[in-house]
Amino acid sequence: MTVAEKLAILTDAAKYDVACTSSGGDRSGGTLGKTVASGCCHTFSADGRCISLLKVLLTNVCVYDCQYCVNRSSNDLPRAMFTPRELADLTIDFYRRNYIEGLFLSSSVVRSPDYTTELMIAVLALLREDYGFSGYIHAKAIPGADPLLTKRLGQLADRLSVNIELPSSRSLALLAPDKKKDDIFQPMEQIRDGILEYKAEKLKHRHVPSFAPAGQSTQMIVGASGETDYHILKLSEGMYRRYGLKRVFFSAYVPVGSHPLLPSPADFQPPLLREHRLYQSDWLLRFYHFQADEILSPEQPTLNPRLDPKCNWAVNHWEQFPVEVNTADYRTLLRVPGIGVLGARHILAARRWRSLDYDSLKKLGIVLKRAQYFITCGGKMTPGLRTRPEGVVRALTALEAPAIAPRYEQLSLFS
Amino acid sequence: MSTWPQRAYVYDGSFAGFLTCVGESFRAKEYPFYFLPPGADQVSLYPLREVATDLALAKSVYQALKTEISETFRRMITYSFLTCLPQKERHIYDVVHLGFIHALPQDLTDDRILLLTRAIHHMTREVDHYRGFVRFSDYGGVLVGQITPKNRVLPLLRPHFCQRLPGEAFLLHDKTHREGLFYADNKWKIRPVEHLDLDRPDQAELECRAMWRKFYETITIKERNNPKLRRNHLPKRFWDDMTEFQDDPA
Question: Which ranges in chain B belong to alpha helices (H)?
């Protein structure tokens, strides 16, 4: 089998992995490569997703039989495996031509978690030590591997991740009988401790072997099992707090099997809008000082598809609005729909020089079509604006129309 | 608006030339309302004046931008000069005049400053895009890439690519502004490149391109196809220079 054929098979097997970010690292000094803290997208595939890393599996030969996974052992698929040298050469070839920012290396479990991790370490060691490669490397920690092997993996990679795959241990038991919740959280804990230890050591000595300097992330599949949005957000929030994760990724389930416990593939559409709303809520958690319990509750466990979560929160909390932009503090400004992190900072900077009116807000990049219902400038709202709650909800929903898939079609008089 | 008499300046189009114009205008107490590059056949209603580039004067103006105002301000002026803002010299001069003669309003909502910050924003976005979208090809060990940017991005891309490919030799050719960034052995130059004839790439290069196209095609999840989203992130004007959208000569 040629390298090109292997690449086709092992890319196809890896494409459902979401994370392709290359941010958070700051590595340089090798003979080739440098990471950029802000990350860098090198191209976008036809589904509109960023391609930043060479995202492949080392092998798709797997001993597990997880029903939601395309590489499950019972699936009839062409199987392949890179040798460490082949994969390292391919990475260097692509990197020199600026196709990619680095390597995203994941793998199915071949023989045992230990054996798989050893193979992955071989690839990374070739890149870092033989080729002097300082580009970005994201590696998957394999649950169940020996902690010493995971440690070595973390010393070579920029970011580690462990996929929790399904958002509850019940679904996990049903759909991934070979994986257990503890197997997943154990390496996550180990990585967290490794990162903390590395950061503490770095304060004391100049030269410390790095350990996953760009942090760790995880991913879960949305829509394959019956968890609510509330459950998923609470779980994400818990993991951000407990394990200090950089990101939690969500992936809308794409039917890859026909197990009786999974949605039937016949008329199943990937829940893309739901995934979008979850990411919006994730941003509220990470950058807007929201808590999962403010966005949803056990009584209201699903995200409103017709309004983004921030607008939805605002129209349910009229008592906190309108906000006066000339006096409100940073956190209050952040809660206004249409004012983002940058917008709020610009407001703080600009109002040291003059009091702001609607015209200057527009120049600062505030999205007035959303914000206008929730703010006052110098005590005044936009003249002539109707602000009855039902009217506002209707207007905000109308703005969302492009995000919501078109449900209506033009009827013809003559058909 | 200043009370200085208005003029149109003819200069050589370089940044040093522009700074000389600034110095001259302050010396002669004239307000250059219009800037013409040499050989432009535009007619101006303002009295014309030719300004020869004076490196010493340019240098002292460049110094003054920092010492009299601030380093941030100087960076804004320097970056603005690389943008594709129409009649950028005039708009930059307005802000420089504002900075030297009056106190500079730090106010982000001032129209004259907003114009420059928006132009710079447009350029830095383009630079960010090109960090990822540049494609090199290997021609016998030398990497060659071509781009078609709207702004003059080469000076801003330079540190990125020189740090990223320290051991390589490469040429990045800007087809719009007909200049090239050359790098080898830790040394770099940006020089005019009128036009570039490339040989047919060798077999290894062709194979590498084919593998990249295969990867690009395979990574897509068909069920999530979304051409509009792709165009938002990766506008079509970049496609012509990118390997994954090109066909190789047979």
Answer: 15-28, 55-64, 71-82, 88-101, 111-133, 154-164, 203-218, 227-233
Whole domain around residue B103: which residue ranges? Answer: 6-123
Regarding whether B165 and B80 lie in a shared domain, the answer is: no
Look at residue A407 and tell me whether its pLDDT is greater than 60: no
Residue A144 scores a pLDDT above 80: yes
- The structure tokens listed for A19 are 């994370």
The ipTM of this complex is: 0.91
Nearest-5° angle of CA A309, CA A315, CA A319? 130
Q: Which residues of A touch B216 (CB under 8 A)?
A: 43, 45, 51
pTM, entire model: 0.89
Report residue B75's pLDDT band, with 50, 70 and 90 as the boundaries: very high
Domain A3-254+270-295 fold:
TIM Barrel (3.20.20)
What is A275-334 written as a DSSP string?
Answer: HHHHHHHHHHHHHS---HHHH--SSS-S--TTS-HHHHHHHT-GGG--EETTT--HHHHH
Q: Which of A302, A189, A303 is nearest to A245 (CA)?
A: A189
Q: Determine, for residues B215 and A363 on separate chains, whether the beta-carbon distance falls below 8 Å.
A: no
The residue behind tokens 């015209």 is A359
Mean pLDDT of chain A: 88
Nearest CA to CA, how far is A257 from chain B (Å)?
14
Do the chains contact at B168 and A32, CB–CB below 8 Å?
yes
Is residue B46 exposed (0-12), middle (13-18) or buried (19+ Cβ within 10 Å)?
middle
User: Which of B181, B183, B211 is the best mutation test for A, with the most CBs of A within 10 A?
Assistant: B211
Residues B79 and B154 in one domain: no
pLDDT of residue A404: 66
The answer, yes or no, to whether residue B67 has pLDDT greater than 70, is yes
CB atoms B234 and A98 under 8 Å = no
Region A6-31 average pLDDT: 82
Looking at B123, B149, B166, the residue that finishes a domain is B123
Q: What is the pLDDT of residue A414?
A: 64
Q: Is the pLDDT of residue B42 over 60?
A: yes
Which of B112, B127, B212, B232 has the highest number of chain A CBs within 10 A, making it the mutation to test binding with A?
A: B212
